[in-house]
TrEMBL record:
Domain CUE per the UniProt entry, residue ranges: 304-346
Compositionally biased region (Basic and acidic residues): 389-398
Taxonomic source organism: Ictalurus punctatus
Keywords: Endoplasmic reticulum, Lipid droplet, Membrane, Transmembrane, Transmembrane helix
Gene: aup1
PANTHER family, per the entry: ANCIENT UBIQUITOUS PROTEIN (PTHR15486), LIPID DROPLET-REGULATING VLDL ASSEMBLY FACTOR AUP1 (PTHR15486:SF96)
Biased composition (Polar residues): 363-378
Protein name in UniProt: Lipid droplet-regulating VLDL assembly factor AUP1
Keyword hit for Membrane: yes
Domain of life: Eukaryota
InterPro entries: AUP1_CUE (IPR048056), CUE (IPR003892)
Family: Belongs to the AUP1 family.
Length: 423
């Protein structure tokens, strides 16, 4: 899936982009803050009750009712399809509390794959694996031994190994969870909440918990699917792909080949792009504070910018002065602006020579030197559109070279420089 598809699978902004919804969220903020403080106090009691009561139907019912007060509303469908003999539940992954929600409906364990162990791991409802810190193969062997115990509770695993927004597609299922048992019970999960996104990449579980307490409610829809048995000579990856297709069809999303590593790489690239843009903007505007208060029009009236604009105008007389000034405010360099304008594909309305204002160092009586007949045209075009990417690339390179040579010759002739010294 292309970059656009990856963008649709994750919410990189928590707040909505719609102006009306953002206004409603702003009006709701005082209520949300008070609700969050109240729910933090109630959440401590929910935690204590869940620790004090033994694992049973009564405990799950009480905790589920108390979680409704915290804004976590859980619904389930097709409960009759749940096979009590299956030791492995697999589900799509949307929030960092998916395992807690499913554990409200049935007793199961979710092993901690990443993150700190100890009290935080236990408090979040994860199962510690002790000394198992090696590869996924070693982890699968340990869990396979766990499932071989008839008295052991079922395992809940997330083959995606990372979260999505649950609206566009599923990450590629890893094969190791399906090596734990020969049968798996798919669990389709949907999450909805008003105002804000259900999760944001690289956000901590504590931050997500506070936002969950802030919004009015979060609805978890759990749907049980029939158990899937591994067929003869079917590999673990083939079984993973089959279950992935079933869950994608049930949820109404697409089944992708994007992995957890692809998501991490996309986030890293996105972060690098933002930082590069910020760095370029700061470097292009040494007077950032002044321009921040006065705006770009104030920078355009700077005598230094005006002088540089006239220098560029002498080299590129056909480019409007407003376009030159706008690019100079970003680059703060004559050479860089000339290069940008030569490589730009933007079409400009040609300005008459008399319309171009004169700089202080340019006399009004000076005549514009004529361009020799051998000079290349300003915008040479290819005779035909190249059939291959290589041909089209060479055509573009030829055009850029011709434009650069033309601008260089105009500059040398304008200032009476020696062509041999500037070669």
């Amino acid at each position: 899936m292309e970059t656009r598809g990856i963008e649709q699978m994750f919410d990189f902004q928590r707040l909505p982009s719609d102006g009306l919804i953002l206004l409603l969220l702003l009006l709701y903020s005082p209520v949300g803050l008070c609700l969050m403080l109240l729910r933090i106090f109630i959440g401590v009691h929910v935690f204590l009750v869940s620790c004090a009561l033994p694992d049973s139907f009564v405990r799950r019912f009480i905790v589920r009712v108390m979680c409704s007060v915290l804004g976590l509303h859980v619904k389930q469908n097709n409960l009759h399809l749940r096979d009590k003999n299956v030791k492995l539940y697999v589900s799509n992954h949307i929030t960092q509390f998916d395992h807690n929600i499913i554990n409200l409906l049935t007793s199961c364990h979710t092993p901690l794959l990443e993150g700190p162990s100890g009290f935080v791991c236990w408090a979040r409802g994860f199962m510690e694996l002790g000394t198992v810190t090696g590869s996924r193969t070693e982890l699968a062997q340990t869990l396979r031994g766990y499932c071989s115990d008839p008295e052991a509770l079922p395992l809940l695993l997330f083959p995606e190994e990372d979260t999505t927004n649950g609206r566009a597609g599923l990450l590629k299922f890893s094969s190791w969870p399906f090596s734990v048992a020969d049968a798996a019970q798919p669990v389709a999960l949907r999450v909805k909440r008003p105002f804000i996104a259900v999760n944001v990449p690289e956000s901590s579980w504590l931050t997500e918990l506070l936002w969950t307490f802030f919004v009015p409610f979060t609805v978890y829809q759990v749907r049980w699917l029939p158990a899937v048995q591994r067929q003869d000579e079917e590999s673990h990856q083939e079984l993973a792909n089959r279950v992935q297709e079933l869950l994608a069809t049930e949820i109404g999303v697409v089944s992708t080949q994007i992995t957890k590593a692809d998501k991490a790489e996309h986030i890293k690239r996105k972060r690098h792009t933002v930082s590069s843009t910020t760095h370029r903007d700061l470097g292009a505007r040494p007077r950032t504070v002044v321009q921040g208060f006065l705006g770009s029009s104030a920078g355009a009236e700077d005598p230094r910018v005006v002088r540089m604009a006239h220098q560029v105008k002498e080299v590129l007389p056909d480019v409007p002065l407003s376009v030159i000034t706008r690019d100079l405010l970003q680059t703060n360099c004559v050479d860089t602006t000339i290069t940008n304008l030569l490589e730009s594909t933007e079409q400009y309305h040609t300005e008459p020579a008399k319309a171009a204002p004169s700089g202080p160092s340019r006399p009004l009586t000076s005549a514009t030197p004529t361009v020799p007949a051998s000079s290349p045209t300003l915008k040479p075009t290819a005779k035909s559109f190249g059939k291959s990417p290589a041909d089209r690339h060479m055509s573009l390179q030829d055009r850029k070279t011709a434009l650069y040579d033309y601008a260089r010759r105009r500059y040398i002739e304008k200032h009476g420089l020696d062509l041999e010294e500037n070669s």
